[in-house]
Amino acid sequence: MTYPALNLRFAPGPGAGTLQDMLYAELDPFEPVAIQEHEAGDGWRVFFRTAAMRDAARGALASEFGNALLDLVPQDVDDEDWARRSQASLKAIRAGRIIVAPPWDAESLITNHSSSNPASRIPDPGSRNPDPDTITIVIDPSMGFGTGHHATTRLCLALLQQIEVRDKRVIDVGTGSGVLALAAWKLGASSIAAIDNDNDALQNARENIDGNGATGRIDVLEVDLSSVSLPPADIVLANLTSAVLQRHADPLRRLAGSSGVLVVSGFSGDELGAIAGALAATPRQVLDEGEWTAAILQKF
Predict the structure, then answer these.
(1) How far apart are CA 236 and CA 257, in angstroms?
(2) 3-state SS of the chain: helix, strand, coil percent to 5?
(3) Residue 185 pLDDT
């Protein structure tokens, strides 16, 4: 079995974050199923459902960004286990008091933490919130996004810890691997809907939710954001792109109701004003990491 992919490379440095956001926006209509970053930080391998979608995306990128891309090469990647092999080197990361670990690093994390401080053990990921100081989420990387290793996911996790989540209704838009929905559950949310329009991501989210002991606690729904019809939430999580956030500003506003807050990421700092304006919301708190920005937005 092979997966159609594009290998693209761009020059790192100032402006790279803005270029990447523009690339995300250009790729969005072609429904990429995964984006694997080069270890050198100078490009991506982008996977698609079909070779036709891959080739159409290549044509669009070449037309729009030909001078900015150093390489734009179509590939057919062998082995249905490519995702696990390519991400086998991933280690646990921390965002505030939340630890996100792949399965192969979770046990060593517990062992190392326990041996260095026997009185303070990393909690069982199946427990909802067993330790007020540490929350552990185990994420099995697959075709979905959101292992916690991308800056935008870490920023959302950090901001989620800055607002009151306990007993709140939460909607995680574009849930990917389900990591943000799981974080909301671990932080005490009373009702969580994890929505996406990608079957592979939804399957990965369900598996991660089951693996973290949250079966039946988080509703995983296949939903197209352009036609979403769900009751408003207290907190709406949207780790998307600038283009998607602005394009779907109306349904995102409806999901947040009259008094909900939005936690948004997936864009550069100079795009925050346009996003806040489209969402008719005011930034309450803003975090940056490298070229990426996330914000808590409160509606006007």
Answers:
(1) 10
(2) 35, 30, 35
(3) 97
CB atoms within 10 A of CB 160: 24
pLDDT at 238: 96
* Joined tokens for residue 234: 């207290």
What letter does residue 48 receive in the DSSP assignment? -
Q: Determine contact, residues 173/238, Cβ cutoff 8 Å.
A: yes
The predicted structure's pLDDT at residue 116: 38
Asked whether the beta carbons of 208 and 274 are under 8 A apart, the reply is no
Take residue 25 and report the two structure tokens written for it.
């926006």
d(CA 161, CA 195): 21
Q: How far is CA 167 from the centre of its chain?
A: 23
According to the model, what pLDDT value does residue 105 have?
73
Residue in 193, 203, 129, 115 with CA at minimum distance from that of residue 161? 129
DSSP annotation of 122: P
Residue whose pair of structure tokens reads 């803003």 in the numeric block: 286
Count of C-beta atoms within a 10 Å radius of residue 212: 25
Cα distances (Å, whole numbers) of residue 177 to 144, 163, 260? 5, 22, 24
Look at the chain and count its residues: 300
Contact 143, 47 (CB under 8 A): yes
The whole-number pLDDT of residue 11 equals: 78
Q: How much is the pLDDT for 83?
A: 57
The whole-number pLDDT of residue 262 equals 98
- In 3D, which of 97, 214, 90, 100 has the Cα closest to residue 160? 97
Sheet containing 69-78: order of strands: 34-37, 43-47, 2-10, 69-78
* Residue ranges, the chain, pLDDT below 70: 12-17, 79-90, 106-132, 141-149, 300
- Entry pTM: 0.75
- What sections of 28-149 are H helices per DSSP? 51-65, 82-86, 103-116
